[in-house]
Amino acid sequence: MGILPGVLLSVAFLQPPVRQPETMTKAVVRLTGPGIKPGSPAALPKTIYRAGPHYARIEDPPNAREGIRKLTIIAEPDAYSINLIDRKGTHAIDRSGPDDVHLPVVFDPTRKLKTLNHLEFGDELAFFEKAGAAKTSGPIVNNQSTAAYRLPEEQGSATLIVKSGSETPIRLSWQTNDGTYTYEYFRYEKLPFNAALFAKPSGVVYRDILPDPNSPTQ
Question: How many helices and strands in the chain, by DSSP H and E?
């Protein structure tokens, strides 16, 4: 499909100890675009939490055909990937270098979207502003005025629509050679940090993923 949305979340870690943040961002988003069948699991809303640079939680929609409802939790240095239907999962401890959690919006293995490769959930407006996006008046959405930030890219432009006078995204779209992908934001809010959301889920049979003994970081 060429350049895809970042549904395959790329995550890197930092060694403990990790100080808990005071707040977290919660986003509920839905994706549309080329090759994404309406009503399919890929097109259903998913919930993403981000808390500081070291905590993340991704709640994917259920996939009844595959018998999967995936939950991903990162609380550095631990990472859990769980199927909530059969209550089985994996646990990994990252022992690599001092990097942070990354939640990319766009998954681009071709590296053609050089700027958008650094766009992440929870940091949308700051990214567009830092990249020098042009700000204009946006469309009226639900009887509310909006602001639009447009950023040129090699294959077209990326546009972020936010509520006027706020940092709250409403819509995020980017053009590719295949067509235009769009994330709709149903919820986007700052909340007090809830450590329970990033704790190891109970009642799950885990398989530990052992570190690669040939890795130079071990």
Answer: 1, 14
